[in-house]
Write a structure and sequence with these properties.
By secondary structure, this protein is α+β, with helices and mostly antiparallel strands. 29% of the residues lie in helices and 27% in strands. Strands 1, 2, 3, 4, 11, 12, 13 and 14 form an eight-stranded mixed β-sheet that branches. Strands 5-6-7-8-10-9 form a six-stranded mixed β-sheet, with helices on one face. α1 runs parallel beside α2 (49-62). The longest helix is centred in the middle third of the chain and has 22 residues, at 150-171. The protein is globular and about 50 Å long.
Amino acid sequence: MISALCINLGKGKTELHEPERSSKIDDFVQNVASEYKPDIVFSQDAYATKHLEKITTNLSNNIEGSRFVLKKNVINENTKDHVGIFLNEKIYLIIDIENECRKVLENKRVDNADFFNEDKRAVLVLAKTIIGGQKFLLSSFHAKKNKINDPQREKHIIEFFSYLEGVAERVKPDHILVGSDTNHRMKLFERRTKTKIFCVKVLLYDYPENCERKITERNVYDFFMISPGLIPTSADPAVFNVDTAILDHHPLFMSFEYPVSNTTSNTTSNTTSNTTSNTTSNTTRNTSSNTSN
């Protein structure tokens, strides 16, 4: 089994100063780490490097026997907008795939010079389980939000999928797992691209009724994406109803099972599991009390 937390660290519109906000985020991470013990944490958006380092410490200190490290891309040096993957080195060996990623982009750009031209918006890591030897291609993806329209962003997301598949073909993982902020209405995306086949399926869901973003009628933008061999242990992710003054988006947690005998063909199969279809039942975790003054 593999478990993951996906957390967009953007502040949105808030009157909280960054030290106060980061302190409350630290409290949230400590609580989730202690209770849920994620193996992987995907992060996105603008957040100071020193605060990201504290997340690494908080995960390691609150999950017994763990040692987390952070792999990240910085999208904007001024704002510290980033995509990151926190991994537990006690569970995974990290395999360097930088050359493979570069070669895929170079090959794609032979015919299309602008292919996925903001490639820093996705960080890719190949992680191999120390016990069992299962290889996971992991990615944290933050789609562009500003100065782009919906058709352009849709093209941007499709190019990310193509990049991800190209790297998977080179590194031959057993499974692919993505944590993302797509900044896009993915239900509409799925309807418009229903004839296309991608290497991962977006796990669609709705916010639970009591979530702040649901009440204020804000779109769902954060999603897990998986290759067919991964099987979610619940119909929907757990959604943490953190005050949007602290985190503009609601973090997600989900666990996935996988057969030990899985082969690499699962990551590029043309069939996708129907077990991940969206349902109306949602698991909510209200953490406001843990992050309030």
